[in-house]
Specification:
With 133 residues, the protein is of the alpha/beta class. Helix content is 32%, strand content 20%.
């Protein structure tokens, strides 16, 4: 699953380009399965507060992070939320994207997802039918 936070619509646009299952992060979002985090960078390289809360609650399931940013704020601040999350939660920084990114970015993200989280991950999925509960 993709878990994403979008303030201006750029990250939502990226998510929609991926064609993968996901959920938009809200203040009380809780997940119970591995996910790839897509986030924007706040201020001068900060992790958005809604993402901080989400990661404190769900970080154990995070398998990687993608950060959107704006190079106009300087190299040191560009996509820095991704650097902070990757270090703090010990997950790979999959990609930093300029604003909405480009098709080559979407393909790299999709490939990481399929190898590490989705169909190609080797992760077993248990299906429980209503009659078995």
């Amino acid at each position: 699953m993709i878990a994403y936070a979008s303030r201006t619509g750029n990250v939502r646009h990226i998510f929609l380009q991926l064609g993968l299952p996901g959920i938009e992060i809200r203040g009380d979002t809780t997940v119970g399965e591995p996910f790839l985090l897509l986030t924007y960078t706040d201020g001068l390289g900060e992790v958005p507060p809604v993402v901080e809360v989400f990661m404190n609650r769900n970080g154990a399931y995070c398998r990687g992070v993608v950060a959107s940013g704006n190079r106009n704020f300087g190299h040191a601040h560009f996509g820095r939320a991704g650097d902070v999350i990757a270090e703090r939660w010990n997950v790979p920084l999959v990609r930093k994207l300029e604003l909405r990114g480009f098709p080559r970015d979407y393909e790299a993200i999709r490939q990481f997802y399929l190898e590490r989280i989705g169909e190609g991950s080797g992760r077993e999925r248990e299906i429980v039918f209503a009659s078995e509960q």
